[in-house]
Structures are given as structure tokens and as C-alpha cells.
Amino acid sequence: MAIELKGLTKRKDNYSQWYNELVVKADLAEQSAVRGCMVIKPYGYAIWEKMQQTLDKMFKDTGVQNAYFPLLIPKSFLCREAEHVEGFAKECAVVTHYRLKNDPNGKGVVVDPDARLEEELIVRPTSETIIWGTYKNWIHSWRDLPLLINQWANVMRWEMRTRMFLRTAEFLWQEGHCAHATAEESEARTVQMINLYADFAEKYMAMPVIKGVKSANERFAGALNTYTIEAMMQDGKALQSGTSHNLGQNFAKAFDVTFANKENKPEYVWANSWGVSTRLMGALIMTHSDDNGLVLPPHLAPIQVVIIPIFKNAEQLEAISSAIAPIIERLKELGVSVKFDDADNKRPGFKFADYEVKGVPVRLAVGARDLENGTVELMRRDTLEKEVLPLKGIAEHIAQLLEDIQQNIFQKALKLREEKTYVCDSYDEFKAKIEDGGFFLCHWDGTTETEERIKEETKATIRCIPLDGDNTPGKCMVTGRPSARRVIIARNY
RNA sequence: CGGGGCGUAGCGCAGUCCGGUAGCGCUCCUGGUUUGGGACCAGGCGGUCGCAGGUUCGAAUCCUGUCACCCCGACCA
User: What angle do CA A318, A321, A327 make, to 5 degrees?
Assistant: First the structure.
């Protein structure tokens, strides 16, 4: 194939090219015929399914239920919340007609000009409007609250520029939309969900994240406050990986969602929304991959162990299969997902390389030699280390090894982030160092003007005001004005 | 939406300046030999050269228009 992954370091200047090639080569996704959209292939989708299942369980453990709302939103709904319009009413796909007809000139089909919709429909860029338009009818009393709903759906934003998984015109996500009786409860839920996302990122994706609050500039359109988790990719750029928004009463007021409180007085409900998307797939790829391809964390790998028999004929394969069968049984008992690839149309060397590109955490190779010795060759994907081990007890060893790999790649990512995180007090120093990427802990005076200036001059933005860590005050790196605490500044995807 | 690039077989490309029968590598198919790190040999299938006009005896090649896609910006999860 023309796509070569070797040479990541040589191509440091063009990480995105490498990334796109990896996505294709690892059989995760490909460009669709539709502008800015992608086709997620079975292997890529299997990873997304693992993420979905894990998150879904975590949501349900907090009392959230799933529901589904329409893809198309009447245009008038988008005009209701002023700030939301500002942020979202622009780059949307619009449905204007409801019928096609045969071209009178005999060239395929054309849009029937007589079938124009009275009110255009917008393909949802996010569902706040249609959901709050619906909640109006669901919420009447304090007894109806809290309302905790999540939706797994596709959304569409007509982005100018797209990149597979990180920014596609259509993407898959979950969006939670909750209604509460009090501001405190809603804020607590908003924080709870960002904590849940951080747990998911660190425990399942093995991706360290920084929890924080967005600056006014980067805040979700229509929110009072936006919480975010920010991860660092291997090239030192930041990736916003999940957000949770405290919407205050903005949407309740725009859609007139009120409830009778315990004193029988009408009151607007308090709202929050939170979401993560297939962008997490991009985060996963860019956090762990190396020159040999994808490196999947065991907790999300669709195949955790692949077993490759090395054989010259059917008898040898049969011998290997029966020797390995109890191992496969035992692995399954231990909850390990295992694939025995006995296809005879690919040579072992091809399979080795193929599963490496796909990021399978552990590989076993078994041949005639091993059968004689009662051994197996094991390779772990994260370090590419190989060792020959006795067949006896191998399943238990692997179960433990998978946990070790999960820990190891998390630690590796954490170490990289720490190495590329700098405390910086000089704007000149910042301007020089930002070229090589990394997170910069700097004092900022809290103004949008300063933020804009930094962005203008360095292409870096305030990723977040961290929730944890050092919160001693200081002086703004740019203006010298007082600063409440250090914030994270970085270039981002 | 601004700047740059590109469009030729499933994929990656050459050919375009200087018009004259559509090329290469990989994939794929068939047969054989192979199989402990992406196999080798032989043969074969596959393209109205992005689309629409124009110039010409003749256009992948020249001209006009148009549509995609990619990269860099602006915008954004």
C-alpha cells in the first residue's frame, strides 16, 4: 500500500497527514462520497460501540434514561434563544423541499419546485431547541423534576474544514439534557457529568485529562458556564474531549418551560446539557498511536488478544487448534475477548503487521516448535516486547498483563503531558515555546481582549481554567494585571 | 469564505509545457511454489482521463465554465 506509517517523527511537521493515514490504514474509517462526512468501518465502529456501552452504563448508574428526538428541527425553534442563534444558526444544513420529480429533460431527478416547505427544517446541529420545545409539555410540577434524559444520535454541522473523527460534517454523539428544580441541583449535575467524563477518559481510554471551566469566549452558545475535559495529543496540541454546560434558565425562558413549585408558584426550570462525540475516537488514536499504528487501551479494544497459528498444512493447524482451545476457553471465562485467526489465505507475517496496525493489545503466536515445547510466543502491543512463555497458566498471565498495559499506556501519556506542560510567566518566552506545542500554565487577567490578543499573535487559546491544582493569584503574563490563578493555554485541534 | 494544490483503473501515481491508438506500481482474479515478521514466479481482468461547452482532421493534453476533494487560514466538539 502507498500508506506508510513508519516515520512519525520525521513527519512531526505534518501530524494530521499521519493521523489521517493511520485512520485509513487501521481500517477505522474512510472518506465518504458526501462532503465532509466519513464512513465508519466495522472495526472502528466496534471501538465506538465499546465506548457507547461503557458510557451508557455510567449514565444509567446516575439515574439518566435514554430517549430519542427528531433529526429535523423547525427553523423557528433555533431563533428562540438569542445567544444560541448567534452560535449555532449559521453553519447548518437546511431542508427546503419535501419532494423530487423526474427531470422534464430526462436527466435523472430534480427538486420539485412546487414542493417547497412553508417553514424550512434544520438538520440538528445539537438538540437543545427541539428538546426544550418538547420538555415544555413534559414538565408541569416539581414532582416531574429532575428530568434526566440522554440521547444517542447523529448531528450535522456544515464545517468549513473537516478531519476524520476530529471534525466531520456529520458525527455521532450522546447529548444529555437535564431539567432541575434548583440552580444548585443543576450545577451539581453539570459538575457530576464532567467528572464522569474525566473518569471515562482516564480509566477506559487511558487518556489523562484536565478538568476545567471554559472562558467566556469559548463557552457554549447559550450557557452560563461550560465545563470541559482537555487532553494533550502527542504533538502537544490540546483536544477538547467532552463538555458539560450549565444553561441556567436561558432555555427554560426561551421555550417557556415552567413548573409549579412546592408553594404552588410557577418557576422556570434549571437546565444543563453535556456531550461527548466520535471525536473521542480521534482522541484515542492521537493519544496512544505509534509508528506501527494504533495502540488500543485493553478496556476498549474490541479484540484484546489475537492468537495466530503458524502452520504448513491442515494437520498442523488441527494440532495447534486443539492445543489452544482450552486457552481460549479460559480467556473467555476470565472475560477476555479473544480472536483465533486461523485464516489460511494470509501469511503469519501479514497478520502480525495487520493486528499491530489495528492496535490489538496482546498477540500470541503458536507454531509446531511451541507445541513440542509447550510454549507460546506473546507480544504486547504497547512496548512491542516479545517473550516465549509456558502455555500453562498463560490465560491468567494475560488477564493481568491487560491491566498492566492499560496502566502503562496511561502513565506514558501522563508522562508526556507532564513533560510538555510548562509554567510560564513571560509572554516572549511563551511565544517562542508555543511553536513546539504543549500546555502552558500562565496567569491571565480574565479579559476577552487579552485572550483574543494571545490567539491573534500565537494561534493559542485558553483551553480552560483548571478546577484542580495550584490556585495562587498572580499577574497576567501579557498585561501584568491581576490574575486569580493560572490557566491552561495551548494550540488546539 | 480568502490563499495554495489536485482530479487519469479499486488505491498511489506518470503522461499535460510541445495535441497524434491510455501507461506504471500495488490491489484483484487464475495456476504453481510458499507459510516463525507485510511471500515469489507466470498469466490475466480492469479507465467514456471529474463534469459541460469550445478550438481542431484529431484533445487526458489548448481555451472557457463548472463541480469535487486536500492543505494553510477564519469558524467549530
Answer: 160
A109-153 residue pLDDT tens: 777 888 888 888 888 999 999 999 999 999 999 999 999 999 999
Identify the H or E element spanning A270. strand A270-277
Domain with CATH 3.30.110.30 in chain A: 421-490
Q: Which fold has domain A305-402?
A: Rossmann fold (3.40.50)
pLDDT higher than threshold 80 for residue A13:
no
* Helix (H/G/I), strand (E/B), else coil: A447: coil
What class is the A12-288 domain?
alpha beta
Closest nucleotide relative to residue A169's CA, C1' based: B76
Helix axes A314-333, A394-419, angle to 10 degrees: 70
Residue A5 confidence (pLDDT) above 70: no
Give the pLDDT of residue A202: 98
Query: Which residue from A414, A423, A418, A434 is spatially nearest to A487, judged by alpha carbons?
Result: A423
Strand B closer than 7 A to residue A6 Cβ: no
Confidence of residue A12 (pLDDT cuts 50, 70, 90): very low
My answer on whether omega of the bond before A146 falls inside 30° of 0, hence cis, is yes
φ, ψ dihedrals at A173, nearest 5°: -160, 180
DSSP A90: S
Round to a whole number and report the distance in Å from the CA of A3 to the C1' of B44. 26
Task: Tell me the three state secondary structure of residue A145.
Answer: coil
Q: What ipTM does the predicted assembly reach?
A: 0.81
Which residue type sits at A305? V
Which residues in window 52-111 of A are less than 7 A from strand B by Cβ?
87, 90-91
Residue A296 backbone zone (phi > 0: left; psi -120 to 50: alpha; other: beta): beta
DSSP secondary structure letters along A351-380:
HHHHHHHTT-SEEEEEEHHHHHHTEEEEEE
Neighbours of A392 (CB within 10 A): 12
Domain A421-490: CATH superfamily is C-terminal domain of ProRS (3.30.110.30)
- The reply to whether A166 has its C-beta less than 7 Å from any atom of strand B is yes
pLDDT at A468: 94
Which residue reads 506508510 in cell numbers? A4
